[in-house]
Design brief:
Layout (H helix, E strand, L loop, with lengths): L17 H7 L2 E3 L4 E6 L2 E6 L2 H25 L13 E5 L8 E5 L1
Length: about 110
């Protein structure tokens, strides 16, 4: 498994895709905010802090409200002037490290 280290203040310690979870043989549970995976010494259990999860949910709700407001203003675009949305988007995890963009599929 390949890892990319990004210097940033982030609520996430690691971002794993399906293939990474499969390779670790991990069982994630978003409902319980935990993940279990086998190790040579037995089953390891990772549990997140509830305050971090609640903070992320609050920020997500704020972002969704902002996006809803943007959609209302976007609906007034004249015909033939539709926006072209790219299939991927580059974002920066931390503004202090603009040399480390992360590409996300939209």
């Amino acid at each position: 498994m390949k890892f990319s280290v990004i210097r940033s203040a982030s609520p996430y310690n690691i971002i794993l895709g399906r293939s990474g979870l499969r390779e670790l043989r991990a069982i994630p549970s978003t409902l319980h905010a935990m993940m279990k995976f086998p190790t040579p010494r037995g089953i390891a259990t990772l549990v997140t802090r509830a305050t971090t999860v609640l903070e992320c949910r609050k920020r997500e709700e704020e972002q969704l409200l902002t996006e809803d407001e943007d959609e209302l203003t976007d609906k007034t675009t004249p015909l033939g002037k539709e926006k072209v949305v790219p299939s991927t988007e580059e974002v920066w995890v931390h503004p202090a490290h603009r040399d480390q963009p992360v590409t996300i599929g939209t």
